[in-house]
Amino acid sequence: MKIPSSEITPEHIYLNRRGFIKAAGFAGASVLLAACGVKPGGGSNAGSTQAPAPTVKEGAFGMTDELGDALTPYDAVTGFNNFYEFSTDKEKVAGLVGDFVSSPWQVEVGGLVSKPTTFGMEELLKFDQEDRIYRLRCVEGWSMVIPWQGFPLSKILEAVEPTSAAKYVRFVSLDDPKQFPGQKSPWYSWPYSEGLRMDEAYNELTLIATGVYGQALPAQNGAPLRLVTPWKYGFKSIKSIVKIELVDYEPVSLWMDAAPNEYGFYANVNPDVPHPRWSQSTERRIGEGGRRNTLPFNGYAEQVAHLYAGMDLSKYY
Questions:
Q1: Weakest mean pLDDT among 24-33, 132-141, 281-290
Q2: For the domain 5-308, what is the CATH superfamily, name and number?
Q3: What is the pLDDT of residues 19-68, one digit of tens each?
Q4: pTM tops 0.90, yes or no
Q5: Can you give the residue ranges of every domain in the chain?
Q6: Lower CB density within 10 Å: C or N end of the chain?
């Protein structure tokens, strides 16, 4: 079943909600991050089990990314979330996660591999831990800078030894309507699924995130682990992963199935390819007034542009 346009939030709703970011920045401001979705705590988030914001010392995580851009505040990263498994109302997600159980947790890795394995979180956390500061851009024109903790996806792939027949990696989220009330919606092909080409999966930027700001990943951000591909739009960052499968076909993701004219397999940040209902050429960084030009591949062209040499990126969007 294809999702009707009325179920996909129009851009003007994002642009008008509470006036968004004032020029003064975050102090007392209400802000919105659309498809990646975050907003300062309080208001409708009262009663959430969200942990208090950690105290971040000057210099921690570098405090800026490689372009010198400041980190997005913790309250914004964890306070307003695009997580349709809980609710399509992004202001309600953080208040609905209190009963979510993320431990114990297992991830089944199989398909076209020599050593299929079911990993527990304890095993996954033994992989080399890395602190990475990545920009994350939403398809609706908002972006943020997040200090993630986690490990390269390549660590898992190396452990299971993909066969030569493996061409893609398919990811599947938890399917549990008792914990995910949003999965009762008939408009989506649950569970949430996503995919990457093998060379994308092995790229140095591709991260399995287990935390933010030095704390375990909150439920509303995709606990206990999620995918992060910072050169792609935020909807590629599948949350609460329970299955990783190596396949020889291009996977059809949830959003590709729901709205194929708006969401493609690659989802590379491309300012020259507009969304069917708005431009992607500029964005607003959370915490800033005004807008900035969107960078090709979200600023990571040096690391990933070679993956798409010779491809028509307006066709393979």
A1: 24-33
A2: Oxidoreductase, molybdopterin-binding domain (3.90.420.10)
A3: 322 222 322 222 223 334 333 333 333 333 455 667 665 556 677 887 78
A4: no
A5: 5-308
A6: N
